[in-house]
Write a structure and sequence with these properties.
single chain; mainly alpha; 1% strand; globular
């Protein structure tokens, strides 16, 4: 994370630009309305009440006793009120995801509004709802165990390893990042000594992670998360209010800018769909939903807690994408100003947006956003890793000793990686580039598991099979085009170093593989009789 002094300088530049006139500072605007944004916002909210209810009715929640009531161990299975479940779920799945991803997605222009809106309604909300409710129906099992029950033992073991590695990586990176930013803030505040040492703050954050992972979910997470969840919502509301009330800022319309506005001409398909991630659909959410599945008093809370939290995250992402499109220079139809802002560092870009739209109040909220939000994703990531291992090795988590058996190695690995990074021995840059792709691939697998679940329940499996097919095409296409994947072999370079993406191969292959996956699913369910298999599924 870059020095925030860069963002302060960036803010001063834009302040002078506004004083010199919007046309001179931000480039010529082709449109002056904000109809696209408001339409997408209305569709998102309406999607919760209409399509979200269709999803809920398809699953069919009833009055059966939930794991939180039936098991209630006072540690992971704890009954929590619905409003708290919603806010904790929101911060579990949100953090900085819908902010960073949405601003990066805005590099393609307002067309990103469409993916955030329809991706949230038809893919992300469906994914989060079924990952949470399938877990609830299976005694709050982690997503790896749930996937294994419907896709078989091979996929179960793949998901076990995949989930634990992903969760530890997320938790570690979300410890190193905030530690570095706190050091920057301390230095800018004139402090010195231990307070300006990354290793010191990293140890403090990791110590908190250990406590939050070890003790009851309601002791810390259940108490502080709602407060920070409210701050995340207030920050988003403040940003859009600042845009609407400042005549210098205009959100461009989709129909007037329906083109690829990325400064590097990076293809929309499937890079934009991978980049936005948490703001539309994210496999990481499926690792977090079981936490709340273990705390629900009634199955009928699922619509609000799981689907509702994803819609709220979609709204937050839509606002930040609008900020990326509205606050920065558009040159020759390209989002050059936003690219320049993001080049100063993601945290610096958030700081800059908050400063422009909310002034000094926004700066305070930005500090909460870029410091607290990653931490609140990191602690639940480590907690989910503990629970995944507990389900994997059948280790009961009632006793302190059993929890220590898992907390110590999980946090030990995270501490080793984090301290190694802080000391310069380990570089996360290459590893982290794979996160977005693995994140969406995980979502694809969970949607296929949900489709099989609905087949066994003799319900409409197309509601999950269609987004599963779509995400299969997204993941396969990106795997072929991404330079950190097969793109390093398929793509070429121009004389000036620009990447030429081999879409002629990647696009059709992605579609063919997605159709193949759908065909395998349909062939499998045709050969299976759901009732006998389902009767022995839990044995």
């Amino acid at each position: 994370i870059r020095d925030l002094r860069m963002s302060r300088g960036l803010g001063d530049v834009y302040k002078r630009q506004r004083q010199n006139g919007a046309a001179a500072g931000r480039g010529k605007k082709e449109v002056s309305g904000m109809i696209s944004f408001l339409l997408c916002l209305a569709i998102l909210v309406g999607g919760y009440f209409v399509y979200g209810k269709i999803v809920d009715n398809t699953f069919g929640p009833d009055d059966r006793e939930t794991p939180a009531v039936r098991i209630n161990d006072g540690v992971d299975y704890v009954v929590m009120p619905q409003w708290k479940l919603f806010l904790v779920q929101l911060l579990n799945i949100a953090g900085l995801g819908p902010i960073f991803g949405a601003m990066q997605g805005a590099l393609w222009g307002p067309v990103v509004f469409l993916w955030i809106t329809f991706g949230t309604i038809f893919a992300g909300g469906v994914h989060d709802y079924f990952s949470g409710m399938m877990s609830e129906r299976n005694d709050g099992a982690s997503i790896a165990e749930v996937t294994g029950r419907y896709l078989g033992p091979v996929m179960q073991n793949i998901m076990r390893v995949f989930s634990v590695v992903l969760l530890i990586m997320v938790g570690t990176v979300f410890a190193v990042g905030p530690a570095g930013l706190i050091v920057t803030l301390c230095k800018n505040g004139g402090m010195s000594g231990l307070l300006t040492t990354t290793l010191f703050w990293l140890i403090i954050i990791l110590a908190y992670y250990f406590i939050a992972t070890f003790i009851s979910i309601d002791a810390i997470i259940g108490k502080i998360y709602p407060l920070f969840g409210i701050c995340l919502i207030i920050m988003a509301v403040g940003v859009i209010f600042g845009i609407f009330t400042n005549p210098a800022y205009t959100i461009p319309e989709i129909w007037a800018n329906f083109s690829n506005m990325h400064p590097s001409n990076t293809p929309i398909w499937s890079f934009m769909f991978i980049t936005v991630a948490c703001g539309a659909i994210s496999g990481f959410h499926s690792t977090q939903s079981p936490l709340m599945a273990r705390c629900m008093k009634s199955e009928k809370q699922g619509h609000f807690v799981f689907y509702g939290a994803m819609v709220c995250e979609g709204v937050i992402a839509l606002i930040w994408a609008a900020a990326g499109c509205a606050l920065y220079t558009i040159t020759d139809g390209k989002m050059t100003g936003l690219a320049e802002a993001l080049s100063a560092g993601q945290s610096a870009a958030i700081y800059d947006v908050c400063l422009k739209t909310m002034g000094n109040v926004g700066v305070a909220l930005a500090m909460i956003g870029v410091v607290i939000c990653p931490i609140t994703s990191g602690d639940t990531a480590f907690r989910s890793a503990r629970l995944t291992l507990a389900d994997w090795f059948k280790i009961d988590q009632d006793s302190y000793a059993n929890r220590l058996k898992l907390c110590i190695p999980v946090l030990g690995v995270g501490s080793f990686l984090g301290i190694g990074n802080a000391l310069g021995f380990i570089n996360y840059t290459v590893i982290w580039r794979y996160f977005s792709w693995t994140n969406q691939t995980l979502a694809m697998i969970v949607l296929w598991a949900a489709s099989m679940y609905l087949f066994y329940e003799k319900k409409n499996y197309w509601i999950t099979a269609v987004p599963a097919t779509f995400m299969s095409a997204v993941s396969v296409t990106y795997f072929l085009l991404g330079n950190e994947c097969l793109g390093q072999f398929l793509n070429t370079k121009t004389a000036d170093g620009a990447t030429v993406y081999n879409t002629a191969v990647a696009y059709p292959v992605g579609v063919i593989v997605a159709v193949l996956f759908l065909g395998i699913f349909l062939y499998t369910i045709k050969k299976r009789n759901p009732q006998p298999h389902y009767e022995t599924l839990h044995k």
